Amino acid sequence: MMFQPQNSALEQSLSSGNSIGYNLTRTETAFDCLNLLAQNQWDLLLLPACLSDGTEAADMIKLFRRHGYSGAVVVLSELQHVAEVTRALQQGAMDYLLIPFGHTHLSQLVQRLVQTQQHQQSIVAESCQSKQMFQLAQRVAQTEASVLINGESGTGKEVLSRFIHDSSPRAAGPFIAINCAAIPETMIESILFGHTKGAFTGAISAQAGKLEIANGGTLLLDEIGELPLALQTKLLRVLQEREVERLGSHKKIKLDIRVLAATNQDLEKAIANGRFRADLYYRLNVFPLHCASLKDRQEDIIPLAKNLLRRHMPQGQANTQFTKAAQQALCSYDWPGNVRELENVIQRALVMSRGCLIREEDLMLPTLDKMANERTPAVPASPSLSVAMPTRTPPPSRTKPDLQKSRKLAEFDTIIATLRRFDGHRSKTAEELGVSTRALRYKIQTMREQGLDIEKILTGQNADLVPTNFNFS
To answer: Where is this region: Disordered (predicted)?
Structure first.
C-alpha cells in the first residue's frame, strides 16, 4: 500500500496503519512514486485530491495509468476539494476518504477492496458509468439499506444484485431471486409467503416461502412493478414488521433478510396511474441504482463480448478472437436487447465462425442485413421513365359484418403496430398500451393461436393480418 503525504492531518490519519498490519510506503514526489510503481506490485495507491503545486489527482491517475499501473486508487481529500474528488472518480478512482480519518475507516476501505477483487472476475466495468455504479454498489453493500435497481431489460440488474449480496456481510447466506412477472398471479402469494398443508386445494404438504428461505441472506424481487396491488400491501407489512405468516397459519416467523428490488418500469409513473403503492416504493427505494443501457456505455461492449466469448467457448476449443471489423460492428450496433442480446449474438457467432476468428458476418447483426437490403433495391428504377401504377381497390365484401371480429382485429393491429414501434420490446409495449406485461403475453399467445406468426409480421415477412382464418367464437 502506497500513499503521498499531504499535510499533518493526513500524517496523523495514517500513522496507525503499520500497527494494524498494513505495509505503508510513503513517497513525496510524482517521480519517486512512478519509480516505486515500476519496482513493485502495489495493492492500493492513496493520492491527495490536490497537490501543493495545483496538480489534481485526476491528472496523476492518467499519468500512472499510462505508465502501466492498473491497481486500485483511493483519493484522500478535505471538504473543500469536492470537485477534484469527482474528477478523480471519473478517471477511475475506486473511492475516497475525507481527512481526518481513523484506522477503522482505512480498514473498512481495504476490506471493500479485497471483496471487490474477489468478485471482479464476473464483473465487467470499463466505462465511467459502470465503474461509478459498482463503486456505489460496493459502498451500499456494507449496509442493510434496501436497494431499488432500475434499468432496461437485459442490462444486468440481477448481476448487480448478486454483486451487492456477494460484497455484503450476508455473502455466506442464501441469495434468492424471484421474478414477479413470471409467476401466475394465483401462485405468487404462496411462493412468496409459503403455505401450510391443506391451506388451499392442492397444498398436500407445508412449504416455506421465498421470504423465509432467504432468512440470513438476500431476497431479490425482480420485475417488482408486476406485483399485484393486493400483494404489494401484504409485502409492505412483512417488510415493516420483519415477520411473515404462511398461508393457512397464524404462526409468525421472524425474518432477517436484505431486500433488493429491480424493475424496468417507471415506478413513479406507475404510482401516478394507481398501479403501484407509494409507501412500498419509498420502502424499497432507500438507495437507488441505475443500470445504463449498453449503447450508453460503449467502452463495456468489447470487454463484455470477450468475457462472454470465454464463458461460452466449447471445452477444448482453441482461443477464439474477434477481427477488427467484427469489433467495429459490435461497437456500432445499438443493442436494443442490451447485454442479453449481446450474449445471444456471441453464442450465434461461435456456431457460425470458421477457425479461430469471429468475423463481421459471423455476428449476423440485424443492421448488417438491413444495410444489405438497402444496397440491393427490389426493382431498379429508370431515370428516364416515370410510370404511374394504378391502385387496385378490393371488391366490396358481401359477407355479413362481424362487430366482435372487427374489434379483435383492431386490437391485434394496435398491438402489432406498438410492438413494431418498440422493436418487439414487450415491457415497453405493455407500458405504452396501459396493460401489464402478463396481459400482453396472454394477448400475443391468443394471436398465435389464431394462426398469426408474430415474428414474421414484425420482421415484415408477413405484413398482413388474415381475418378469414380467425376464430372468435
So the answer is: 376-405
